[in-house]
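Record passed on here:
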Amino acid sequence: MKISKAILSLVLFLFITLDIFATAQIPDKIIYKGSTHKLHSNPMEEYFKRFPNKRPQGNLHFSALSRGYVATFEFVDNILVLRNIEIMVRGDVSKAPKGFSWKSLISNFQTPEKPLKINWLTGLLEIPRGKIVTYFHMGYESTYENYTLLEVSKGVLKRAKDFDNKAYSAFKRRQFESFKKTEDYKNLVVDLKTKQGLSNKSIESFLKRFIISYVSKISFE
């Protein structure tokens, strides 16, 4: 049985971009239940892999924003849509004391009457909430007091679950142990050994860290 191309592609992408995301990243945003939250997922990356010429290009490069933009999303009638996409640009210091400002490019992707539906997304969206419990200067590795996990299928919200820090850590461990029993996991280990030269220990550590990125359902088995 061959490993799912989608899972293999995502895992290899995560592995390759570890060096790129060696700095803590400015997250995307999501409007959920009337409030704007950080989003430790980047749904537009799949879109830009399909349409690389549409990736926003700014005149300012910032190590904490390696992907080059910040996207804002919202569920409208349980359908995930793009609400804004912004880039950093050099600004007038008198108007932008930090030397940069944010420029919206939303009109490049949609009209007010027809928002872009994120219908390619099937997976879990991670919303961190509360204070940082443990800070890591890499990607979205810092841990928080609480989390909300959203299960999405083809852009449609199917399920939501809230966790405190301890319960979320336990949940991720269960998700990983469940994934280890699958053929996808076994074939992924073989593939990473062959193509990346990783040891079993390194592979398990890597996959455990990013379990939420490639598991598509909230499972409590």
